[in-house]
Amino acid sequence: MRYLIRGGRVLCPDGSLEELDLRIDGDRIVEMGAHLPLTDSQVIDARDRIVLPGLVDPHVHLREPGQTAKETIETGTKAAAAGGFAHVCCMPNTSPVIDTKEIVEAIIEKADSYGYAKVHPIAAITHGLRGETLTDFAALIAAGAVGFTDDGKGVQRADVMRQALLCAKELAVPIVVHAEDETLSRDGHLHDGEVAKELSIKGIPSEAEAVMIARDIVLSEATGGAVHFCHVSPKSAVRVIRDAIRAGIPVTAEVTPHHLLLTQEEALRVGAWGKVNPPLRAATDRAACVEGLIDGTLSMIATDHAPHTAEEKARPIEASPFGFVGLEISFPLMYTAFVHSGIMALGKLVDSMARIPAERFKLHAGILNVGGYADLTLIDPHAFRRVDPETFYSKGRATPFAGRELTGWPTLTIHRGKIVFTRAAKEESIR
Ligand SMILES: NC(=O)N[C@@H](CC(=O)O)C(=O)O
Ligand SMILES: [Zn+2]
Ligand SMILES: [Zn+2]
């Protein structure tokens, strides 16, 4: 199949927007230029659209194998396509845990058979996420794993983390850190602040996250093993990561749209739909995350898409699991808050949502160029729509952003030369 994507403003690798046509042949971009001839290609009208590289999300939970009432590889990758993502890294806290090469291979194969988006498993650091013995990193990488994490839990033992970093250095992959010291976080449900106090709910202090980040920076420096910090949320953590990067220690970090845009007060408004780990914190923490995004300390945006069933997220806060969905609204959330508002250049946002995560996990993705894979996303920078969880492809419905008016919605997603998502024209602007 040949497509001619015509008349759009294309985000070029140097960050500029240029009115260019793109030709796709098979799974590749074969031509980019002004006013390309039709030559037996099917036209995709991209006037009034911005053309971006397919986005890359370094942190999603697809829940397969084992938790298919929450999500499946099929529904999760459909949600990715609807959010403009061509690549997602999936987390290993499934059941069974992604700790064998057979499970890694099965996930990749299944995702490829659907073809909505590429899935790159991040395998477990330790068997069963028990925090004790390392998995077979080399075998898991050979099967397609792009990093290692015990996400959902922090690796409590420093000796185990040091060993993991030594192996990671040897194999040139990052250790992806969910930072949570359980001696400080245990039994907590919300940020340890005013709202938790008001609701008489046990809190999770910022230090539970920051002390483990500080520990792993020290271990990264000592071993030379690379660390990627997940979903950074407290001010203290942003500061120590910034210092570590300045000191040349091989660390990177991601931040979520929810930690950039929301605070602990959400619990009063949306209850368990705003319960997430790490928790939505204080206004000073949120401001520090924004500062970290702007200055490049937090160089990647991750959704931490964490679907649960409607029943689970309808429970009272203390009985509900941590996490909510994000894939289908992450780009419009970020675009509206940071680009439409004039705070950040589009090129920088897309770097943080495509090029930089692709580089970190060595994915062939994240920029538009001739000869590269035809993974791309058309964005409507004009229309405003409200977030309506009922329209999600994900099985998850919970999000504290329900009802928000956003712009910058993906209207068409192409993955490996195939159209994998189009937004229905009837979903027109509300403004
Ligand atoms: N973020 C969450 O609140 N939940 C995640 C686990 C995690 O990312 O730590 C989940 O798997 O549900
Ligand atoms: Zn986590
Ligand atoms: Zn996660």
| Ligand set | N-carbamoyl-L-aspartate, zinc ion
Instruction: Enumerate the spans where pLDDT stays under 50 for 5 or more consecutive residues.
Output: none
- The CATH class of the largest domain turns out to be Alpha Beta
Counting DSSP E segments of at least 2 residues, the number of strands comes to 19
Cα end-to-end separation: 36 Å
Mean pLDDT: 97
Tell me the count of domains: 2
* Global Rg: 21 Å
Write up this protein.
The protein is α/β, with parallel strands linked by helices. It has two domains: 2-51 and 371-422, Urease, subunit C, domain 1; 54-360, Metal-dependent hydrolases (TIM Barrel, Alpha-Beta Barrel), CATH 3.20.20. Helix content is 32%, strand content 23%. It has 14 helices and 19 strands. The protein has helices at 73-82, 101-114, 137-143, 158-171, 182-185, 194-198, 206-223, 235-246, 257-261, 266-270, 283-295, 310-313, 330-340, 346-360; strands at residues 2-11, 17-25, 28-33, 42-45, 50-53, 55-60, 85-90, 118-121, 123-124, 148-149, 175-177, 190-191, 203-204, 227-229, 251-255, 300-301, 376-386, 405-415, 418-422. Strands 1, 2, 3, 4, 5, 17, 18 and 19 form an eight-stranded mixed beta sheet that branches. It has a six-stranded parallel beta sheet with strand order 9-10-11-14-15-16. Helix 2 packs parallel to helix 3, helix 7 (206-223) runs parallel beside helix 8 (235-246) and helix 8 packs parallel to helix 11 (283-295). The longest helix is centred in the middle third of the chain and has 18 residues, at 206-223. N-carbamoyl-L-aspartate binds next to loops. Keywords: Hydrolase, Metal-binding, Pyrimidine biosynthesis, Zinc. It catalyses: (S)-dihydroorotate + H2O = N-carbamoyl-L-aspartate + H(+). This is Dihydroorotase. Belongs to the metallo-dependent hydrolases superfamily. DHOase family. Class I DHOase subfamily. Substrate binds at residues 61-63, 93, 277, 308, 322-323.
